[in-house]
């Protein structure tokens, strides 16, 4: 089972959505969602059940985000290249990617996922340190994964032009 392809299908990402998601505003606003979600869950202390309002708003935002922004004006930004690299990574069954990139992507994803357990526990019991540890581990894993996707994109674009996205 390919968890990456499952996530892509669940977001209903087509070519247009991917191109719009390459906009740095899309990428960086999605990066901000997890810390905002943590604050929203923590806010149950002072908002009670009303904390579900920002949680629901963030869930909706995650769904519409890839389609919310226009395609990027510059296709060479870090965010755009990370998005194009992720597309290449997701298509690795049809167009193989260098093994070292695939291995690194899987390890970095495992790191990001490993952070979810202390994050969830910390939020459940409202403990600062496990929450922060989990948040940092998840964010570092995801951002490092994105940086690796930039590297993958550059390698595929420079080494195998026919394999790279049309992002050139």
Automatic annotation (TrEMBL):
Keywords: Membrane, Transmembrane, Transmembrane helix. The chain crosses the membrane at residues 47-65, 105-126. It comes from the Bacteria. It holds the Pfam family DUF6653. This is DUF4395 domain-containing protein. It comes from Jiella mangrovi.
């Amino acid at each position: 089972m390919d968890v990456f392809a499952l996530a892509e299908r669940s977001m209903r990402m087509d070519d247009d959505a991917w191109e719009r998601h390459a906009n740095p505003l899309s990428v960086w606003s999605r990066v901000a969602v997890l810390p905002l979600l943590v604050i929203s869950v923590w806010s149950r202390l002072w908002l009670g059940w009303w904390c579900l309002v920002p949680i629901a708003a963030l869930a909706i935002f995650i769904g519409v985000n890839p389609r919310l922004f226009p395609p990027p004006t510059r296709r060479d930004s870090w965010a755009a290249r990370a998005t194009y690299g992720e597309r290449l990574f997701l298509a690795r069954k049809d167009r193989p990617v260098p093994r070292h990139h695939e291995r690194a992507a899987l390890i970095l994803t495992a790191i990001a996922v490993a952070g979810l357990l202390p994050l969830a526990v910390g939020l459940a019991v409202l403990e600062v340190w496990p929450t922060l540890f989990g948040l940092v581990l998840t964010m570092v894993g995801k951002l490092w994964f994105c940086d690796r996707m930039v590297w993958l994109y550059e390698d595929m674009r420079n080494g195998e032009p026919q394999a790279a996205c049309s992002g050139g």
